[in-house]
Amino acid sequence: MASSIKLILRKKPNKEGKYPLVIRITKDRHSSYIYTGQYIEMKHWDESNRTVRKSHPNAVRLNNLLLAKLSEASKTIITLTSDQLDVSSQAIKNKITTPLSKINFKEMAEGYLQELNANKKINRYITDKARIGHVMQFASNSRLTFKEVDEAFLRRFMSYLSVSKKLSKRSVINTLIVIRTLYNRAIKHGVIDRKHYPFGKDKIRIKFPETEKVGLTKEEIVTIEALDNLTVQESHVRNVWLFSFYLAGMRVGNVINVKWSDIYDGRLHYRMNKNEKLLSLKLPEKVTAILKGYKKNMKSIDDFIFPEMKKANLKDAHDVLAKTKTATKKFNKYLSRLADKANIDKKLTMHIARHSFGNIAGDRIPIQKLQKLYRHTSISTTINYQSNFMHQDTDDALEKVINF
């Protein structure tokens, strides 16, 4: 029976709800699949023509890439089947995927970054692009292969990041995570054999260093609440920070994107931009009091509560990110002034609002309720986070030992 080869969209979505574009090889009613590494939404696939629709932002690039892969696979099949009368679909697949070993680290990284950008994961795109840039700069080789990215290479690279780039341990680990992601992709697509994998036991182990999370105390927050003689801008920044704190340490990106339409039935309804989870929180009276001060500036129900995003181009993810970073930088500058006025010697930032909530919650709120407030997927994440602020048991034990 003659073998056939087709480009199809497999009906098995990933976590983002996108479907993989694959090359299906069929021989003697047995099929094997070669993943192209490209994922799209179902609406962008033209089943009759087996192409990516023009509605996809990268339709031309994707169709050219897929056509090239399909053409290469077809040539391989013709050559292979002319030499052998009986060859399985798996054998054909193995022969086709062998040339993938020629794909280098940079090419795999570029495809990864294109996906992030296309999916509007702009913040991650920017940070991971910089991390990949560190790898290429260190290697000084645009044709760096995955075999060359071995354990010895990574240990030298880690030292380079720490000494030459002066990156923190956390930043070094974050860079290794990107490399690991690319390596796993390379293994999945047949670019490199798993036996070369440089991560894991007795190899390069990725372990986040312990960091101290410092939060304000109840007394320090009361002091901030009671500050008077503030400038208009200082008062605004205090409101934004307290809004975040009162709502379980709501992230700054979410705070400045809250609209009046998100508030109804005495609750705030919003979607976290970190994990896209939908939240619904009852509005504390202190939050209601803050909202009253901004009500006079409301132009419509779809208007932002706080002014920072009112001039942002919401259709441009890059502009939204830029506006968010600018706002955060401004907030942190004024928060430093507020800390001075309140005689607080801790570094006061927007992010410390989350730590402050955790610090005051301590071990007084059941961990399951904290998990819901933080919207952590796993309770172990909440336990690890909250352990930074739960000191009562150890404090009591210390007192029992030394008080003699």
From TrEMBL:
Gene3D superfamilies: 1.10.150.130, Intergrase catalytic core (1.10.443.10). Residues 211-403 form the Tyr recombinase domain. Residues 116-187 form the Core-binding (CB) domain. GO terms for molecular function: DNA binding. InterPro entries: Arm-DNA-bind_5 (IPR035386), CB (IPR044068), DNA_brk_join_enz (IPR011010), Integrase-like_cat_sf (IPR013762), Integrase_catalytic (IPR002104), Integrase_recombinase_N (IPR010998), SAM-like_dom (IPR025269), Tyrosine_recombinase_XerCD (IPR050090). It holds the Pfam family Phage_int_SAM_5. The lineage of its organism: Bacteria, Pseudomonadati, Bacteroidota, Flavobacteriia, Flavobacteriales. Keywords: DNA integration, DNA recombination, DNA-binding. Belongs to the 'phage' integrase family. One of its GO terms (biological process) is DNA recombination. This is Site-specific recombinase XerD.
